[in-house]
Amino acid sequence: KGFSSTFTGERRPKGDRIFEALGATDELSSAIGLAGEFSSEKGHTFVDQLHKVQCMLQDVGSNLATPLSSAREAHRKRTSFSEKPILELEQWIDSYSEQLPPLRAFILPSGGRSSAALHFSRAVCRRAERCVVPLVQAGEADPNVAKYLNRLSDYLFVLARYAAMKEGKEEKIYIKPEP
């Protein structure tokens, strides 16, 4: 009938912002899964990190499915989202960034299948973040969830560049068309 339940048992329309954010997060996990498969075929060592990210996205979803306005303390405890995964992403970003050449131009999604799939995942991540921010602003989701998605998109960008470099694939850059 166009309604679904949150983890707290509250019935909301399927078009509710919470379900929009959950759907975007699920799509993000699927995109990362695809990128992980392409990356695994190329023997990239970061595939385990992508799997860990997918697991964290399940926790993101649990937090989103538990609107703080209707959550009891037991719900909040089970679905809280800490700052620890954000700090881990920042460490990963720093580690890969140190190995990359400086960025001198706008990069188009490219650089082989692994890299392009990671760029696609980054774009989906940005959309998921845009869906989550209003929930955080309304006090319905933990601010750490939005922070995690923000850092995750940066991680996916750096990882896309790293994958292209490791595979010896050229990253295409933006060239302004002549008038």
TrEMBL record:
Coiled coil: none annotated. Pfam families: Cob_adeno_trans. It comes from the Eukaryota. It catalyses: cob(I)alamin-[corrinoid adenosyltransferase] + ATP = apo-[corrinoid adenosyltransferase] + adenosylcob(III)alamin + triphosphate. GO terms for molecular function: ATP binding; corrinoid adenosyltransferase activity. Keywords: ATP-binding, Nucleotide-binding, Transferase. The keyword Transcription regulation does not apply. GO terms for biological process: cobalamin metabolic process. SUPFAM superfamilies: Cobalamin adenosyltransferase-like (SSF89028). Residues 1-163 form the Cobalamin adenosyltransferase-like domain. NCBIfam families: PduO_Nterm. Belongs to the Cob(I)alamin adenosyltransferase family. Homotrimer. Converts cob(I)alamin to adenosylcobalamin (adenosylcob(III)alamin), a coenzyme for methylmalonyl-CoA mutase, therefore participates in the final step of the vitamin B12 conversion. Generates adenosylcobalamin (AdoCbl) and directly delivers the cofactor to MUT in a transfer that is stimulated by ATP-binding to MMAB and gated by MMAA. This is Corrinoid adenosyltransferase MMAB. It comes from Oreocharis arfaki. The lineage of its organism: Eukaryota, Metazoa, Chordata, Craniata, Vertebrata. The gene is Mmab.
